[in-house]
Specification:
The complex is a heterodimer of chains A (331) and B (160). With 331 residues, chain A is an alpha+beta fold. Helices cover 31% and strands 20% of the residues of chain A. The model of chain B has no long low-confidence stretch (mean pLDDT 96). In chain B, a hairpin with a 2-residue loop joins strand 3 and strand 4. Classes of the chains: A alpha+beta (331), B alpha+beta (160).
Chain lengths: 331, 160
């Protein structure tokens, strides 16, 4: 690990000023991803700006009836929050599906959104990687890509975004609150991450120095039920091969509201807009769910070893929607 | 806060205040083992994947290999050496003995600290712990010997 300076600002404005003035600086919060990447030599900051003690660690109600989640709320605390468990089951379930108890005690809301891909080639500095070292190539396309993207990838990069939390927040239409050198602004979670195209090293739309201060979740849509489901190689403590977050309302047998986001399949949480549009007003049954999800997945471009993800994601999403519809009818 | 490559920090470790001058790169795990000579906490994968380095930081279980020690300034740390009070084993330690919940023992300090943290989490949430729940919540602690069935039984016994 390269030597680095360490600063612990006491307010967000000071934190932003410190980062903007130091091109090789990084914000440090829970450290569960950044410290690991520093050990691997993937990240080599000259300065860490420790934001972990800034006053951004609370979950508070918003005027509109939603919740504002401070950037530093830990995954464990957010999953356990009674308001989250009652009003946003998809969020609590996604958090508890991720990582381990130890990691959830450290990992933060903002850090979770900005965590880097777990693509093996990105993490191995002995290998080429267009994301880590632009222009060097992508051995994953011909190499080990069983875990990697089938949607939204490019010739240059097939990495997936590993977050479970981001998938749930994308379904909830959450908004990221940012503080930059020119002041605050907001960005929908669905616009936070970029698809790789020919610039896979540019992963998100934050401006230099911008700090995520909170994530605002709107109030639950009336009559909806929500859930998160995840498939992985072992029963616990593994990244998603595929996951789905669904928020569904059904009235008189027809879909009146749907948010569907797929995880583990793409370089960002994959909001299934095509499936959503097909399903609004359509019968809430397995046949129409299947047709809509298949239409969404028509965009998939699997490689040699990850084609299994397409039917896996279809079955997962259809089962999630069927179960939500059945649960809605039963109540 | 100073900006050099070294920083002075104070940690309360197992009830004793310790002042350290630390290379900023030093993890809490290495500070405990190399500087404080508390070698009960084990270095396994060193990447947050195995849980051998689990300690309680301000009462919560964490992977000490992913915590830069400088960031823990002013915090309390409980390691496996600090679980027993006044020469009496912690109930989790006793249950591990009673259930033969280890083989080589390398992962045991992390398993013990993780179990103590998990029990506190469940108590704070008012939750009952059954075997599947304990199994899932201990999944951040890997045991290469496969002593899981006995570990789970030990934790469930203390929980009840």
């Amino acid at each position: 690990m390269r030597e680095f300076g360490y600063l612990r600002p006491t307010d967000p404005v000071e934190a932003v000023r410190l980062l903007v003035g130091s091109p090789e600086a990084r914000y440090l919060a829970g450290g569960t991803n950044l410290v690991d990447l520093m050990k691997l030599g993937v990240e080599r900051p000259r300065l860490l700006v420790d934001v972990s003690r800034l006053p951004l660690g609370d979950v508070t109600p918003t005027d509109g009836g939603g919740l504002r989640i401070g950037a530093l709320v830990t995954n464990a605390d957010l999953a356990a929050d009674p308001r989250v468990r009652a009003a946003y089951p998809v969020l609590s379930q996604a958090l508890l599906a991720g990582a381990s108890g130890q990691l959830r005690n450290r990992a933060t809301t903002a850090g979770n959104l900005l965590q880097r891909t777990r693509c093996l080639y990105f993490q191995d500095t002995a290998k080429p990687c267009n994301k880590r070292s632009p222009g060097t190539g992508c051995p994953a396309r011909e190499g080990v890509h069983r875990d990697l993207a089938v949607l939204g990838a490019s010739e240059q990069c097939i990495a997936t975004h590993p977050s479970d939390l981001a998938v749930a927040l994308a379904a909830l239409d959450a908004v990221v609150e940012l503080l930059g050198p020119d002041g605050p602004r907001t960005l929908p979670v669905t616009d936070l991450h970029r698809l790789p195209g020919d610039r896979p090293h540019e992963e998100h739309r934050l401006l230099p120095g911008e700090l995520i201060t909170a994530v605002a979740v709107p109030p639950p849509v009336p009559e909806t039920l929500s859930a998160y489901r995840k498939v992985r190689d072992r029963a616990s403590y593994a990244f998603a091969l595929a996951s789905a977050a669904g928020i569904l309302a059904v009235r008189a047998g027809r879909v009146t509201h749907l948010a569907l986001v797929l995880g583990g399949l793409a370089p960002k949480p994959w909001r299934a807009r095509a499936a959503e549009q097909r399903l609004i007003g359509a019968p809430a049954d397995e046949a129409s769910f299947t047709a809509a999800v298949e239409a969404e997945l028509a965009a998939a471009r699997p490689l040699r070893d990850n084609a299994y993800k397409v039917p896996l994601a279809r079955n997962l999403a259809v089962r999630l929607l069927c179960d939500l519809a059945a649960k809605g009818q039963a109540r | 806060m100073i900006s050099t490559t070294e920083t002075a920090v104070t940690l309360e470790v197992n009830g004793t205040s310790r002042e350290l001058r630390l290379d900023n790169r030093r993890t809490l795990l290495d500070a405990l083992r190399e500087q404080l000579e508390l070698t009960g906490t084990k270095k396994g994968c060193d990447h947050g994947q195995c849980g051998a380095c689990t300690v309680l930081l301000d009462g919560r279980r964490v992977n000490s290999c992913l915590v830069l020690a400088v960031t823990a300034d002013g915090s309390t740390v409980t390691t496996v050496e600090g679980l027993a009070a006044d020469g009496t084993l912690h109930p989790v330690q006793q249950a591990f003995l009673d259930h033969d919940a280890f083989q080589c023992g390398f992962c045991t300090p992390g398993q013990l600290c993780s179990a103590v943290g998990l029990l506190a989490e469940a108590e704070a949430a008012g939750e009952a712990l059954d075997e599947p729940t304990v199994r899932e919540r201990m999944s951040g602690n890997i045991c290469r010997c496969g002593a899981y069935p006995h570990i789970v039984r030990a934790v469930v016994e203390v929980a009840s």
